[in-house]
Amino acid sequence: MYPFAATGNTKESLYKEVNLPAEFESVLINKLAALDHRYLKDLKINVGNVLKSQTLNRKEALLLALSVAVNEKNAVLIAALEELASQEGADEKEIAEITACVSLMNANNVFYRFRHFMHKEFYDNAPAGIKMSIMANPVLGKEFFELTSLVVSALNGCEMCVTSHEQSVLNHGGTQARIFDAVRLGAIFKSFSVLI
Predict the structure, then answer these.
(1) Between the N and C ends of the chain, which has fewer C-beta atoms within 10 Å?
(2) What are the phi and psi torsion angles at 22 (to 5°)?
């Protein structure tokens, strides 16, 4: 009886960390909780740790987590993280820019991954023809926009985009430690999104 109660508290504290309602039902999380599975505790610790990064402030961490939720089309997590980001000072334009960035990166990740796979002169030299004006003067600043682009590109597995955005983050004053923390956050929130 006691281990299940402890796991129930883990589930409750995990939900609280990401602003999910206590009554939210996830079949997969409920299965883990019913089995007193130790991964649930690991997940709660992982989520808490990435949201308390040394190189990302809380607002940035929540906006990056939101980018993962948008990329994974997780409506429940999107709503929860939008509210948390708003509480940390993110305005409607910043939240909208995260959504726009994720959408643009999905187009770019498909297109540039195709180019990378093919390695054919025609595809490599033909103009992309993808309008990307939001990248020119982003509301959140160039470094953070590029950091978000990097996280989404890592999620979507586009090597060319990851390499390009990593260098761009560095060129705009970011650090490798900040990049590492952002990509780790993306990985953890992707793992969380799988379960809800």
Answers:
(1) N
(2) -55, -30
Question: How many residues make up the chain in this entry?
Answer: 196
Q: From the CB of residue 87, how many other CB atoms can be counted at a distance below 10 Å?
A: 12
Is 158 marked active-site?
A: yes
How many helices (H) does the chain have, and how many strands (E)?
Answer: 10, 0
- Specify whether the CB–CB gap between 20 and 11 falls below 8 A: no
Q: What is the pLDDT of residue 34?
A: 87
CA-nearest of 64, 30, 31 to 47 is: 64
Pick the closest to residue 176 from 67, 89, 55 (CA basis): 55
Q: What is the model's pLDDT at position 8?
A: 55
| Sign of the dihedral through C-alpha 68, 70, 71, 72 | positive
Residue 89 in 3-state DSSP? Answer: coil
Q: 40, 158, 162, 169: which is the annotated catalytic residue?
A: 158
What is the tens place of the pLDDT at every residue in 73-126? 999 999 999 999 999 999 999 999 999 999 999 999 999 999 999 999 999 999
Rg (CA), the chain: 18
From CA 105, how far away is CA 145, in angstroms rounded?
11
Q: Which of 29, 161, 182, 185 is catalytic?
A: 161
